[in-house]
Amino acid sequence: MRDDNVSHEETSEITGTERGKLLPTHVAEITTDFLVKHFSEIVDYDFTAKAEEGFDKVADGDIKWQDLIGKFYKSFQPLVEKSEDISRQETSKARLLGEDPASKKPIYARYGRFGPMLQKGEVESEEKPIFASMPEGVSLKDVTLEQALEMFKLPREVGKTSDGKSILANFGRFGPYIQVEKTYVSIKPLDPLTITESEAREFYEKKLQGDKDKYINQFASGISVIKGPYGPYVTDGKRNARIPKDTDPKSLSEKAAKELLDKAPAKRKAKRKAKR
């Protein structure tokens, strides 16, 4: 309000701009914290400038490169030797939650290769530790011992399928799922600790039906006729070939499918992007 007059202003904000950014992973954060704490001289902002200045002096003949490298290692080697005694719990930012009442082993919440995780036992001990996923929606700093102990009850046998196969429920890298032999089915948004046998069966049967609807035909030779997102095609696992629009995929013979595959190019191997 200015001079008894009400002013109106509209502002806008652009969302979704994280897509084009490079965001550090948990491993990168742990590595950076470790270097800053134990190798502060190396990650110092002036380190590169000082190193380039030294190389310039070597190039100009003012000092010998052996003297420059020797001076560096004189201070660097003690840091390396000192870091050898640092425990894995410290480097992985492990947080001790408590003790497992049954085994008397310590329970940690820590960072792993794929993010936050739970650990029962010590890495340095002869007996290998047991690992479990973090509860969904709970952070490393907030997880409790009670929540962690529940996660170590997984995988949990929920029951049996209609034909007597065991159904296991668990948490994985991509969320909650059930497993029947070699078949894995996502059960989002249900909890593997509370999912019932009837609910698990429903997820499993839908998965089987979906797989069944996916295959139009399967031949003994390993060639399959499949419903794809862009139309039906044939595959032998190594090559894919589109089925002509004027051809009924249900009536496609094994011989005709093989002829289509013979004309199709082999699958291209994914190229790894060069590191910059």
Structural notes for this entry:
With 276 residues, this protein is an alpha+beta fold. The chain folds into four domains: 58 residues, no CATH class; 63 residues, no CATH class; 58 residues, no CATH class; 45 residues, no CATH class. The protein is 30% helix and 22% strand. It contains seven helices and twelve strands. The strands form three sheets. The chain has a four-stranded antiparallel beta sheet. A four-stranded antiparallel beta sheet has the order 5-6-7-8, covered by helices on one side. Strands 9-10-11-12 form a four-stranded antiparallel beta sheet.
* Rg (CA only): 29 Å
Total helical segments: 7
What are the secondary-structure elements, in order, as H or E?
A: HHHHEEEEHEEEEHEEEEH
Shape, per Cα inertia axes: extended
Please give the share of residues in helix: 25-40%
Placed side by side, the strands forming the largest sheet appear as: 1-2-3-4
Count of β-strands: 12
Major pleated sheet: 4 strands, antiparallel
Low-confidence stretches: none
**What is the count of structural domains?**
4
By secondary-structure content and strand pairing, the structural class works out as alpha+beta
Task: Give the terminus-to-terminus CA distance.
Answer: 54 Å
Strand content: 15-25%
Average predicted confidence as pLDDT: 85
Provide key terms for this protein:
single chain; 276 residues; four-stranded antiparallel sheet; 7 helices; 12 strands
Would you spell out the secondary-structure blueprint of this structure?
Elements: H1 26-38, H2 47-59, H3 65-83, H4 88-91, E1 95-99, E2 106-112, E3 115-120, E4 130-133, H5 145-151, E5 156-160, E6 166-172, E7 175-180, E8 183-186, H6 197-214, E9 215-218, E10 224-228, E11 231-235, E12 240-242, H7 254-263
Antiparallel strand pairs: 1-2, 2-3, 3-4, 5-6, 6-7, 7-8, 9-10, 10-11, 11-12
